[in-house]
Amino acid sequence: MIDIHSHILPGVDDGAKTEADSLAMAKAAVEQGIDTIIATPHHRNGQFENDHQMIVTNVSILNDLLVDEDIPLTVLPGQEVRINGDMVEDIHNGELLTLNNTKYLFVEFPSDHVPRYAKQMLFDIQVAGYTPIIVHPERNRELLEHPSRLYEFVRKGALTQVTAGSVVGKFGKTIQKFSNQLIEANLTHFIASDAHNTTTRGFVMDEAFQNVKKTHGADYFYMFYENSQLLVGNMNVNRIEPEMIKKKKFLGLF
Ligand code: FE
């Protein structure tokens, strides 16, 4: 299994602090059936500054360490980019790193809202030849309250990634329910761990995929499984026509 979102690189953000932490995370990933993982450190958020070249170098060091330690996990380079006005410029000047050097780029919104310029920026990224993937939309307050905004982004070509922990209820019942609604309405295309450590923010990928199979059926299970493989290979991923989430249903009033 491929995990496209993780904070496994040591000492670069709020994920693994040391090489020992990274190795512990790598072992936990392997136990979950993960053989390939994309390291997606936060690009920039006040405390951290992780540019393209630094990430590539650190991924290579971690891969050497995994070989030395006989841990059967391959780490690929990536980045989690907080939405900002310079994104297209930063793609062109080599500051940003797409997922495994493909056309797919992670875009993170602030947790409490969606910036006004998001629609235009998601469009501009696509005009530049890249496909934006909105990370964990289920954890964004504005999208939770107005899921039709996410519907518009997806209809206009953006993809989304739901976090495994959300699917299994680690972020509470509301977010779990919203995650299931996103899956049901074809508003998400990937499930990934966004693992930061082995305790409070672990992998739970196996559990999440089993939940998806049980709740949504084998077709969704395989679609998510396959989409991560297609992404790493820079191929087009499976998309099913998205539907609107009905507010009534969202509130559980029907
Ligand atoms: Fe993340």
Q: Can you describe what's shown?
A:
The protein has 254 residues and is of the alpha/beta class. It has a single domain, classed as Alpha-Beta Barrel (TIM Barrel). Helix content is 42%, strand content 13%. The protein is built from 11 helices and 8 strands. It has helices at 19-31, 52-68, 87-92, 118-127, 141-145, 147-155, 164-167, 173-184, 205-216, 218-232, 247-250, and strands spanning 2-6, 36-39, 74-77, 80-82, 104-108, 131-135, 159-163, 190-192. The chain has a 5-stranded parallel β-sheet. Helix 9 crosses helix 10 (218-232). 42% of the residues are buried. Fe (iii) ion is lined by residues 5, 7, 40, 80, 194.
Write the layout of secondary structure elements.
Layout: E1 2-6, H1 19-31, E2 36-39, H2 52-68, E3 74-77, E4 80-82, H3 87-92, E5 104-108, H4 118-127, E6 131-135, H5 141-145, H6 147-155, E7 159-163, H7 164-167, H8 173-184, E8 190-192, H9 205-216, H10 218-232, H11 247-250
Parallel strand pairs: 1-2, 2-3, 4-5, 5-6, 6-7, 7-8
Helix pairs in contact: 9-10
Bound molecules: fe (iii) ion.
Fe (iii) ion binds next to loops.
Keywords:
about 250 residues, alpha/beta, TIM Barrel, five-stranded parallel beta sheet, three-stranded parallel beta sheet, 11 helices, binds fe (iii) ion
For CATH, the homologous superfamily is named as Metal-dependent hydrolases
Tell me the major beta sheet.
5 strands, parallel
Could you say which overall geometry the principal axes of the C-alpha atoms support? globular
Number of domains: 1
CATH topology label: TIM Barrel
> What share of residues is helical?
40-55%
Numbering strands along the chain, what is their spatial order in the largest sheet?
4-5-6-7-8
pLDDT < 50 runs, ≥5 residues: none
Mean pLDDT: 95
Radius of gyration: 17 Å
Q: What distance separates the N and C termini?
A: 37 Å
Number of strands: 8
Strand content: 5-15%
Question: What is the CATH C-level name?
Answer: Alpha Beta
Number of helices: 11
The CATH architecture name reads Alpha-Beta Barrel
Instruction: Give me the secondary-structure category.
Output: alpha/beta
What is bound: which ligands?
Answer: fe (iii) ion
